[in-house]
Amino acid sequence: MDIATITDIYGKAGGPVLSYLVIGAVLLVALPAAVLIGHHAGRLHRLKTVSSGKGVDLQAGQTSLGGILTLLGLLLAFSFGNALSIAQAGCVATTIQPDAPPAFKSPKHQIHS
To answer: Membrane-spanning residues where (predicted)?
Structure first.
C-alpha cells in the first residue's frame, strides 16, 4: 500500500478551464435567455392551438411540475450523499491506528492509496 499525502494528490490536479467569473457571466445571460425563449415558444404554441379551435392542454404545466420535482429530488439525493461523504471522512480523519509509526500520527492528514 503506497502512502500519498494531500499535496501529492492535489499537486497533480489541474485548475479549471474557465474562471468562476466567466462561468457566472455565461449563466447570468444564458439562464434568463432560456426562460424567455421557452416562454415565447410556449405562448406561440398556445396561440396556435387556440386559433385552430382546439382546447388548451394542461400537459405543459404538468411537464414543468415534473421537471421541478425531479430537480428537487436530485437536490435532496445529492445533499444526503454529501452528508454521508462528510461523515465518513470525519470518521476516517479521527481514527488513529495505535500501532502506526510516529510519521503517521502527525497532524498532516495522509491518505492510503
So the answer is: 17-38
